[in-house]
Amino acid sequence: MTLEKFNLAEIESDQLFSGENVIHDGIVDFAKYIIASPKILWILKEANSSDSDWTMRDALKDLKNTSGKGLKTGWANTFTSIIYTTNGIFTGEDWDSMGNFYEDESIIKVLQRVAYINVKKVPGGSQADWNLIKEYYSENKNALHQQIQLINPEIIIFGGTYNFFDDDFFELFGELEAHVENNSLHIYQNKDYLLLNAYHPNNRVIKHSTYCNLILEAVKNWQLKFGK
User: Which end of the chain is less packed: N or C, by CB atoms within 10 Å?
Assistant: First the structure.
């Protein structure tokens, strides 16, 4: 797909979700996503925000804290794991070997190479309401499915969101081999796709380092098995 077609896909993706309160999301930077390998999509629940006069795409293009080191205020709890995991997929490093974004803030820019969407496109709070998100999914599932098809990822990481999706969504990916890694990561894969049913990145069940390394190991195994 050319950059021009990706730009058209962004417009089409935004048109799938209408309304004054929509926080648009999707491919963060088309020019970087188009050359990224593998192509990664993160799917989370909703934006923790009281307003909608911004887009997730613009926010993720630069999460660096302009007044200090690390991430902007309010973003670290969820996006620390996302950034390290994403960086590890692209570099082949694990949590302990890749350094940290307090010393190397360029690590934060790895988000420019991926896509990110929320199931619920309207503002939410710090505690997600499962029933409200499921209701939003049911009302907008065709649009959500189309958005993901436009993004066309090879790897989808569900951050506590896998169970919102109906069976007809997973049929889009063909027959998937399934297994469970350490009871904390459910893996579904074939030669074209890797779907990971993971905890939310800010979960309290396993450490962030474990969360990251479990996903990195699954990606490496998928790449080795199918010659990626």
Answer: N
